[in-house]
Design goal:
It is a single chain. The protein is mainly β. The protein has a single domain, classed as Immunoglobulins (Immunoglobulin-like, Sandwich). The termini are far apart. The relative contact order is 0.28.
């Protein structure tokens, strides 16, 4: 009985969230129209691998960048390497200028202070982001 009580907490799945989930819309800065089902790359600078960066926008230009997270059962991973990354996403679509977008002000406004650590799932909405066409 005591053995079961001691083992149960160790078998519990835990998740750490190193970034928020980010949602928003991409628009062309010249036409002011949304990108319709365009395919490109978006993610967190220094945290999103190449495969996870591929993204297809919705018919209204909407996007979702999933939170970068890690699950564990027994030993909590070292989170030190995740504390000093910039609060930026990268946006890359063919025919448009590459863009880094700082989401720190949206994060401060939308995430309560008590939930800003790695133990809580967070979601922020960046609204409309305009990209400049390449000339």
């Amino acid at each position: 009985m005591i053995c079961i009580i001691l083992i149960t907490p160790a078998c519990t799945k835990h998740t750490l969230y190193f970034t928020p989930e980010v949602v928003g819309y991409l628009y062309d800065s010249k036409t002011k129209k949304p990108f319709v089902k365009k395919v490109g790359e978006m993610g967190f600078n220094g945290r999103t691998n190449d495969e996870d960066a591929k993204i297809k926008l919705n018919k209204d230009g909407g996007f979702v960048i999933p939170a970068v997270s890690q699950t564990y059962y027994f030993i909590k991973p070292n989170t030190q390497k995740y504390t000093n990354f910039p609060s930026e996403i990268f946006i890359s679509f063919k025919g448009y200028e590459f863009r880094s977008f700082d989401y720190s002000s949206a994060y401060v406004k939308q995430v309560p202070e008590g939930k800003s650590n790695f133990n809580h799932y967070k979601k922020i909405d960046l609204g409309v982001i305009y990209l400049d066409p390449k000339y």
